[in-house]
């Protein structure tokens, strides 16, 4: 388990590009045949990627979180960004197509990731994906809530933005205060419409939650320019497909792509009100 210690906005002006990437970019979450996890001390979030690649992967406990099993004191949101796969939680099998979201609550002991559906051998799906790629987002939990699976389009769907400002997008809210119940996690998937490049613009902060983005469905030769930092001290990261960004509570989180893309957004912290934001108008940015 890689550890990333918390940072504060006073550090931003002196950081080089390499230092910014080392602190806030998670470039290699998806490794075939492995579970990869990164612990950030910002709200004690754990980001992870599980890529079965034909082999069942068991989610272990880690000494860094001082638990006998991973979900002993935590909850977990999972979004599949690859081909169809299954997650087995204490014997219950959940099938996740691409874009589906599964919530697992505190106390679930055994979690296993696998390729394919519950009844069919792994095969290439409609999007050309040949294997499941599970994105993991975990936060501490004070109690246990039931596991819940939400398929694409079954959550709360919001249409946002405008084609004239290049930010027309469809937002699927899965784990949130009016959807799947959790202790801290708020999680969903946003898909940009063709011809749109900007997400979350005008930008915002929310000083009560840490938010992480996972960009995916980005062409191999395309990139997202992700903005971070305070509104008067902005910086950027150049982000490729299936790379994640850790955005502390004091930081902006917005991006523009060289092509349309999709991203998983996930938050944990003080509250679960999705619209609890502190706007950062474009005219305030520097």
CATH domain topology:
Jelly Rolls
Number of strands: 24
| Rg, Cα atoms, Å | 18 Å
Per DSSP, what share of the residues sits in E-state strands of 2 or more residues?
A: 35-45%
Structural class: mainly beta
User: Quick one: CATH class?
Assistant: Mainly Beta
| CATH second-level architecture | Sandwich
In short:
This protein is mostly beta strands. The protein has one helix at residues 17-24; strands at 2-4, 25-26, 34-40, 45-51, 57-58, 74-80, 85-89, 92-96, 101-104, 111-115, 134-140, 148-150, 156-160, 169-175, 186-192, 198-199, 203-205, 209-216, 224-230, 233-239, 243-247, 254-257, 262-269, 278-280. Mean pLDDT is 91; it is low at 120-126.
Helices and strands, with pairings:
Elements: E1 2-4, H1 17-24, E2 25-26, E3 34-40, E4 45-51, E5 57-58, E6 74-80, E7 85-89, E8 92-96, E9 101-104, E10 111-115, E11 134-140, E12 148-150, E13 156-160, E14 169-175, E15 186-192, E16 198-199, E17 203-205, E18 209-216, E19 224-230, E20 233-239, E21 243-247, E22 254-257, E23 262-269, E24 278-280
Parallel strand pairs: 1-3
Antiparallel strand pairs: 2-21, 3-4, 4-11, 5-10, 6-9, 6-11, 7-8, 7-10, 9-12, 13-14, 14-15, 15-23, 16-22, 17-24, 18-21, 18-23, 19-20, 19-22
Walkthrough of the structure:
Pathway: Glycan metabolism; pectin degradation; 2-dehydro-3-deoxy-D-gluconate from pectin: step 4/5. Its EC number is 5.3.1.17. This protein is an all-beta fold and 286 residues long. It has a single domain (15-141, 151-284), classed as Jelly Rolls (Sandwich), CATH 2.60.120.10. 3% of the residues lie in helices and 43% in strands. It contains 1 helix and 24 strands. It has one helix at residues 17-24, and strands spanning 2-4, 25-26, 34-40, 45-51, 57-58, 74-80, 85-89, 92-96, 101-104, 111-115, 134-140, 148-150, 156-160, 169-175, 186-192, 198-199, 203-205, 209-216, 224-230, 233-239, 243-247, 254-257, 262-269, 278-280. The chain is globular, with a radius of gyration of 18 Å.
